[in-house]
């Protein structure tokens, strides 16, 4: 199977459980949204898959093999607040960093890696910004740069942690259209998202979390009043789905 298979994942921070024995199948070649209240473990799920946080229990498989042994399987776009935007680097070299996992130790990127970088910039329509310092970009432009960096890894899976936070509506529309195009080209895309009003427009399937899986699957199956109240509590009883 080409889906990501998560078995009994548990994550804790400072002795507090964030995810408890979570088991989940994430389908490939779809736009999958991860939703849930603050502190529900959405970002922890992505970081657990990537091995960026220690998991107390659990294994993640792709095509029958553990994910940790599959180089370049997953590209990751972290939250913008986790990135040092004061570092003096231009757009081209940020995207070029995405090619480094393909290189042998101590080998510098060459012609092929630079071609991949230009192709990624073309995908996100930012070739004209190649020599621009990242500190000079808008929020939407920055997110497109980070998506280009992820594309330069040439990974089949793309995981994004709240990519629309802090950007304007026009930029969000551009990025959503870009991600849908990438999905249509065969990429598997998983997005942590917080705006419940856009779930139907953005995603093929959703994963509803609250320290574990409340529901997962198609929009009509998951995005129900009953499930939302289970995850968010009585505050959403009158929420217009």
TrEMBL record:
Which InterPro entries does its entry note? AAA+_ATPase, ABC_transporter-like_ATP-bd, ABC_transporter-like_CS, Metal_Ion_Import_ABC
Can you name one GO molecular function term for this protein?
ATP binding
Instruction: Cite the SMART domains for this sequence.
Output: AAA
User: Is Nucleotide-binding among the key words of this record?
Assistant: yes
Keyword annotations from UniProtKB, A to Z: ATP-binding, Nucleotide-binding, Transport
Q: Does the keyword Transport apply?
A: yes
Q: Which CDD domains match?
A: ABC_Metallic_Cations (cd03235)
Alphabetical list of Pfam families matching this protein: ABC_tran
Q: Which residues are in the ABC transporter domain?
A: 4-236
Origin, by domain of life?
Bacteria
The family note in this entry says:
Belongs to the ABC transporter superfamily.
**By what name is this protein known?**
Metal ABC transporter ATP-binding protein
């Amino acid at each position: 199977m080409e889906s990501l298979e998560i078995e009994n994942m548990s994550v804790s921070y400072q002795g507090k459980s964030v995810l408890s024995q979570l088991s989940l199948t994430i389908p490939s070649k779809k736009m999958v949204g991860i939703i849930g209240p603050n502190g529900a473990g959405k970002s922890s799920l992505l970081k657990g898959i990537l091995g960026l946080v220690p998991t107390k229990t659990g294994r993640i498989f792709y095509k029958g093999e553990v994910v940790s042994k599959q180089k370049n399987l997953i590209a990751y776009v972290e939250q913008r607040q986790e990135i040092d935007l004061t570092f003096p680097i231009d757009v081209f070299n940020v995207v070029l960093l995405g090619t480094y996992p393909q290189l042998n130790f101590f080998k510098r990127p060459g012609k092929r890696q630079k071609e991949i970088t230009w192709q990624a910039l073309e995908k996100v329509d930012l070739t004209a910004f190649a020599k621009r310092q990242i500190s000079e970009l808008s929020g939407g432009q920055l997110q497109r740069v980070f998506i280009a960096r992820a594309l330069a890894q040439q990974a089949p899976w793309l995981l994004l942690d709240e990519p629309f936070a802090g950007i304007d509506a026009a930029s969000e529309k551009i990025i959503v259209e870009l991600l849908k195009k990438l999905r249509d080209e065969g990429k598997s895309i998983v997005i942590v998202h917080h705006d419940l009003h856009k779930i139907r427009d953005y995603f093929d399937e959703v994963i509803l979390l609250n320290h574990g899986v409340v529901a997962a699957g198609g929009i009509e199956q998951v995005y129900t009043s009953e499930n939302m109240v289970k995850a968010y509590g009585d505050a959403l009883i009158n929420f217009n789905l």
